[in-house]
Design goal:
30% of the residues lie in helices and 39% in strands. By secondary structure, it is an alpha+beta fold. Strands 1-4-3-2 form a 4-stranded antiparallel sheet. 16% of the residues are buried.
């Protein structure tokens, strides 16, 4: 058996992870074919030296059924000689399973269609968001 300390990554360390807010509003209406669904993501990050602070936002709106907004906050530290900007996509990728799990828990309720978020291409998300901010 290999000791965990021997294989921990020194490139990226998660210092903190928590949901800053979760807002859920349901109408009580539900049929399988009801509503148009919209799912969106946004990231906001700040890099100061080796510290990376990330806010991962998600909004799910199923018309006439429910509206769910979440903000997951992660704080990471880049290690070694690696630039913090280089590991930003990795830090966001670490956060996504926690966001996915919370969305599944919130939507696995009576009269609510369960949402299972699909895997996201983090690099594409960051690139599209960056292009959108420039225009």
């Amino acid at each position: 058996m290999i000791n965990q300390e021997q294989i921990l990554s020194d490139a990226l360390k998660m210092d903190n992870l928590y949901f800053e807010y979760i807002r859920f509003q349901a109408s009580g209406n539900h049929t399988v074919d009801d509503g148009e669904g919209r799912i969106g993501f946004k990231t906001d990050h700040r890099i100061e030296g080796r510290t990376i602070a990330i806010k991962l936002f998600c909004r799910i709106d199923i018309e006439d059924i429910f509206d769910l907004e979440l903000c997951l906050v992660g704080k990471f530290e880049a290690g070694g000689n690696i630039e913090s900007e280089r590991v930003l996509p990795n830090a966001i990728a670490i956060m996504f399973p926690y966001l996915r799990a919370q969305v599944s828990l919130m939507t696995a309720q009576p009269n609510i269609p369960t949402i299972n978020l699909k895997p996201v291409n983090i690099n594409a998300l960051l690139e599209r968001q960056s292009n959108k901010e420039r225009t």
